[in-house]
Amino acid sequence: MKTTFRKWMSTGTVIVVAAAMAAGCGSSANTNTASNEQTNAATDAKKTAGNEPNAKPHAGKTVNLVTANHPWAEAIKPLLPDFEQATGIKVKVESFFEDQLTQKLTVQFTSGSATPDVFMYRPLQEGKLFYKNGWVHPLDEYTTKDPAYDFNDFSKSAIGSTTVDGKLVGIPVITEQEILYYRKDLLQKAGIAVPKTLDELAAAVKKLHDPKNEIYGFVARGQRSPLVTQVSSFLYSEGGDFMKGDKATINTPEAIKAFTTYGTLLKDYGPPGVLNMSWPQAIGIFAQGKVAFYTDANSIYSNATDPSKSKIADQVGFALFPAGAAGSKPYNITSWGLAMNAKSANKEAVWAFIQWATSKDVVLKTQQKGNPGARASVWDNPEGSVGFPKELAPVIKESAKGGVDHDRPTVISVGEARDAVGEIVQKVMTGDTNIQAVADKANQALQAIIDKDKTK
């Protein structure tokens, strides 16, 4: 089985490349050649499978896959026929918007449904809840069965995001890091170097802030709950965290400094209405050319670089998150993963699908479509960066080497915890002068959430 699967993986690559050549070339001779190569490769795969009695041990099985309406899902769907041909497993796909997806999964799992067999999920938003409720099957036992899978190739931080209580709950498919976006033209005109520290960022923001001419120094998420994921990198880079073990730590000196820095940048140098901005509004005003610096997830870069959406598409720069007292420590998380239903009747077939979908070859293909994966070898491969702007790819690669595996408090009641943290930053933004008292109260609230979750 293992030898055949590896042979198929290599053959599958030939099939996809040949198909791409056929689609992109106008010569009938080349098209015929590509078509012949594809036919021969498919025939070879069938012969190989037919020569080994156990080449398709799961043939005839059906795996029900539920995905989010996400670019990764769109990238994987055209590749499914290759998997089905090589394994004999049929994959049925359903896709939903994020909120609908969570609702569907919760309803089905609560009722004890054996479907879907495998599904996309947000590890830091739902992973702990799903695991505590017994809805997901840990994958630790599977990852070392086939050495060719090379589980150690995955980013440790990305795996940390999909690990709950020491158990591997899912496999990363999409990673995300916080980076610094900036206006290259504004920095060049003012003779300012790209900030490498938070102190340098604050100085550059102040210098470029020119509200009379509708140029603001800094923008980021200002809404109470959405801001939490982005202030997290400020927190880690100053040496703090939301929790230490089971103890809330959002009132420490490190936390106060981080929250104050973020809140002050928005209060003093942000555009009007920033208190109510989530990422669409924040990157929207940056894309209008009205802000010098913007910090957020690398995954939304196209909103600033797409000429149809951005007035400054050719002037957007990307940089590593600036260092604080503890260095540059952006979050480096799995924003989407694949997990197995604990009630699935086809667990071996489900793992065969997950192993294929997160293999090096398939991750390369989905990453080439602009979906940042978690495999170091794919990022080390020059072909793995073709789906990203030339200046962004090295920033993602460098950010993925370290970082912190969460961007919010790791609790079951994520929404309540985010509100507690966001309250502190918003008080800074509205000019509250006793932030320590605000943080102490918020810390008590977060601790109560942590304690309550232990009983769930």
CATH topology of the largest domain: D-Maltodextrin-Binding Protein, domain 2
Count of helical segments? 19
- How many structural domains does the protein architecture include? 2
CATH architecture of the largest domain: 3-Layer(aba) Sandwich
Number of strands: 12
Q: Please state the overall shape, judged from the principal axes of the Cα atoms.
A: globular
Give average pLDDT, whole number. 90
Radius of gyration: 24 Å
Residues in helices, as a percent range: 40-55%
Low-confidence parts:
1-52
SSE class: alpha/beta
The proportion of residues in beta strands is 5-15%
CATH superfamily of the largest domain: Periplasmic binding protein-like II
Please provide a brief summary of the model.
Keywords: Signal. The chain contains 19 helices and twelve strands. The chain has helices at residues 2-24, 28-51, 71-76, 80-87, 98-110, 123-132, 156-161, 184-190, 198-208, 227-237, 253-269, 279-287, 302-305, 347-357, 360-367, 376-380, 393-399, 414-429, 435-453, and strands spanning 62-68, 90-96, 118-121, 163-164, 167-168, 170-183, 216-219, 243-244, 247-248, 291-297, 316-319, 332-340.
Can you describe what's shown?
The chain has 19 helices and twelve strands. By secondary structure, the protein is of the alpha/beta class. The chain has two domains: 2-172 and 336-399, Periplasmic binding protein-like II (D-Maltodextrin-Binding Protein, domain 2, 3-Layer(aba) Sandwich); 176-331 and 407-453, Periplasmic binding protein-like II (D-Maltodextrin-Binding Protein, domain 2, 3-Layer(aba) Sandwich), CATH 3.40.190. Helix 1 (2-24) packs antiparallel against helix 4 and helix 11 crosses helix 18. The protein starts with a helix and ends with a helix.
